[in-house]
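Example 3.2
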Amino acid sequence: MDATQVVTVTPKERLDSASAGEFKAELATVAPSAKGIVIDLAATTFIDSAGLGALVSLLKNCTQRGLRLYLAGLTPQVRQIFELTRLYRLFDIFETAAQARTDLLGQA
C-alpha cells in the first residue's frame, strides 16, 4: 500500500445529528483506489449517537469493501464516549493520524 491509497478525513468540531449527514456524504466521495481510511478526530470535541452511527456505518461499509478504517486523535471527551459505549472494541484507534497512517502503510 502506498501513501496515495490512504485517505485522511478530519470531521468538524462536532460530529452530531446536524453534521453526520454531511460527514457521510464526504466519505462517499473517497477515492475508489483507497485501501485505507484514517478518521482524524483531533479537532472533534463532541460526538453524539448520530456521529457514532455514522462511524459504525462507515466501519461496516469499509469491511464490506475490504478497506482498513482507523480512528485517530480522540479528544478526552470523544474517548470517554467510546469507552462508555464500548465502541473502542470495534475500531483500531491510534493516538495520532500520523501513527495510524504509518501503520496502514506498513500493512502491504
